[in-house]
Fold each of these.
Amino acid sequence: MRKKFLITLFTATVSLVLMSSLILNTYAASQRDIDELNDKKSQAEDELNSVNAQMDTAESELESLKSQVAEVESELARLNTQLDDLNNSIDTKEAEIKQEEAEIEEKDDLLKQRMVAFYELGDTSYLDLLFNSADLFDFLSTYSIVQQIVEADTALINELEEKKAQLEADKAELESNRAEVQTVKAEQEKKSTELQSLQAEKEQVIDSLSEDQKALEQQIQAFEDAIDEAQEEIRRQEAANNAANGKYEGSFEGVLEWPLSYNYNIITSIFGNRTAPTAGASTNHGAIDIGVSYVPVYAPASGKVILAGYVSGYGNYIKIDHGNGYYTAFGHLSAFNVRAGDVVSTGQQIAVSGNTGVSTGPHLHYEVYIGGSSKGYRVDPLQYTSHPSLIYH
Ligand SMILES: [Zn+2]
């Protein structure tokens, strides 16, 4: 798990970040780098497609939630209108009931006055009424008229009471309707709250997916840029290789400077036959080995770099054409500061020494050719090279 993480970290970070610095240091862009970058880019594109699909789903879910919210909101508006109507009807009924009550009170007062008048009359004037009546029939008739008036008043009051009772029943029904509508409204409000919270959650999911999309798009763009850069670098290398095919136009002055700082003066292997060579190393050592670790290597004379790359056995290897058939070469390098085709001047840093190829430990393998880089022969560099006093190990 940790290893996988480290590998992922390495390939993702190093191939992107170090890509450019590797190119600058070693000019080592290759088709393999481009293939790797294309693989990574494809992975990012697959991921982006998956995020896009999730986004489509989330967006259509959000649309559905929004239309549900709108539906509930319009239902709530309808319920509010209904409630307003019911409240108005209830107010109207209440007003009508009050009016009815006033009318009943008024009629009741009138009846009471009549009754009082009648009974007062009863106490003091029944006999008068009786005696003033022409006859018994007249008296009974007068009495009957009064009684009829009282009965009519009572009937009217009863009718008003009934009407009031009906109004109150109507009002009670309206209130029960209102309670039902309020229950439905409360349910719809709860539903609306739930839907709105679902909508907010969905919007958050969409925001986060949108960030993922942006990040992946940037990643894909970064891979594309790195691929472009690597392709451009390969083109530059090809151009440099073509340029390197041309010979150095300058001429060799006859002196090779020491290719290192003068304080690096330990010779670990001299030029000539070796009695006990390291496995894989040549018995005929056509070079000198200088014992250094990772230090700058300088051009021993002006010339043109004709090779800067990996060579089996030599590791990272540089060969320089100095003109007039003189060449120098350096092996086991850890990094390049020049590329094939570059024209260099005496003392210019060309590389960093190291331990690449077949090597028992960090050292600089230094060769001098005369008569051609491949058809010529190698000579002891010390014979042609100004050098510090040397220590042999
Ligand atoms: Zn050597």
Amino acid sequence: MPLDCRRSTIVLDSAAMFAGVELSYGLFYTTEGVLREVLDSSSRMRLEFAQASGKLVVLSPPGEHVASVKSKARELGLLKELSSTDIEVLALAEYVKKKCGTAILYTDDKLVQDVALSLGIQVRGIKYVEKSRPSRYSYRCKSCGYTGTAPGRCPRCGSTLELEVLPR
Ligand SMILES: [Zn+2]
């Protein structure tokens, strides 16, 4: 079953599956990687039933979207923090946004929310209230204490800068 923009633009990540988003209402999209992460049998049965009844559609994001999500995550200095499933589900959300003009990603993962917001994808928290804007990040040098706004090497001493999420 393909993407049906008129019925839904909602993409679910693993947390949404575990939290038991009510799958009997409407239509949701997700990826193979997310399904693989849902290992417990009660969730799995629920998901298989949802798939069989056409409420949950498993799609594989095109490679160009995987590439653009990776590039955005790298730009934000978050690429190393994301799993391949995170990238896949973000790429699917970006694909839905491109095809439908809008996309909503259900996730409680703050870093995934950040990348999604940076890509213009709406986010909804499941157990927690979602962020309305990305966190502020800084990159700190553990050796000399330098802080900057981009990942890479410390301009003072050459050490690798480490990601630090700032409180808002
Ligand atoms: Zn330094």
